[in-house]
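Could you join me in thinking about how sequence relates to backbone shape in a protein? Would you write everything just below, so we can both look at the same thing?
***
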Amino acid sequence: MRVSRLGLGADRWGVDVSLETAENIARQFLDAGGSLLEASQPDTYGVADDMLATVLSQLPRDEICLSAVSGVDPRKPVGRRVDCSRRNLIRQLDERLRALGTDYLDLWSVAWWDMRTPPEEVADTLVGAVRAGKVRYVGARGYRGWQLAVTEGLVAASASYSLLNRDVEDEVLPAAAHLGLGFLAGRALAQGVLSGKYREQVPTDSRGADPVGGAEVLDRLDHRSDTVLDALQLAADGLGIAPSTAALSWVQEQPGVTAAIISVRNEQQLDEALATADVRLPKAIGEALADVSALRLH
C-alpha cells in the first residue's frame, strides 16, 4: 500500500468545516499530490461521514486512499465502548461503507485493543474483509508493540505522535519497524496546539473552545508546550516557514514514520501543511527540537 506523506483527516468536517470548505480542501489536497484521506474518529462520525460522502462523490475514487477505523463506540457507557468482536467489527464496517457511499475502504483499522476478544478472531475478521473485497488493507490503531506482533495480517499501525506526545518511540515505532509495518502519525500537530494559535487565548472557533472535546487540547497548554512552541517559533523564523510546518516536518522526518495525519479548518492551514513537501529541517534544528520536547517541566 502506498500513501502520501501527508494525510488529511475529516473529523472536523460538519463540526467547524463547511461543505464548501471541505470540497476546496479535498481538491487542493489531491491537486498537491495527497492521497491519504482519513474518515472521522468514532466520536464524531455521523454528520462528518455525510459530508465526506458528498465530497467523495465528486472526486476520483481511485486516486484516494480512504482510511477508517472500527471497534469503538464512545457513545456507549464506559466499559462497553470497546468491542472488536467479529460481529461488531463487521457491523460497523458495513455501516461506514453505507455512510461513506463507497464499496470499499483502502485501509481499515481496528480502533483499540479489546481484552475480551482473542487476537486471532480480530485478525481473521480483518483479513476476511480483505478477501470479501470490502477493504484493501488492514491495520491497528493505539496498539502496543506486543499487540501488533500477535495480530497477523496488518500492514500499518497508527497512533498519536507529535513533539508533545512521543510515547510511541519507546515501543510502537521499533515494533512496527521490526514487523515491517507502516506507521501513521495521528494528531501530528497535537490538535492544533503546535500551530501556536492557543498561545495568547483560546479562539472561539477552535477545537479548544469545544465544551465537549476541548478538554484534551486545554490539558496540553502548559509550561512544556510553551517551551516547545518557543523553540518551534525560533526554528520557523530562521527557515522562513510557519511553526506548524516545522512541527509537521519534524514528525514526517522521524525514522519509521510513513505519513503524518492532520485535520485543518481552512485552506490556509492546509497550505502550511503542504509546505512540508519543500522543507527539510537541518539536522541540528531537528535534534534541538527533539531535545526540547523531551524535557519534563513542572
About this structure: The two ends are 43 Å apart (CA to CA). The first helix runs from residue 19 to 31. DSSP finds eleven helices and eight strands in the chain. The beta strands are 6-9, 36-38, 65-70, 105-110, 135-141, 156-160, 182-186, 259-262.
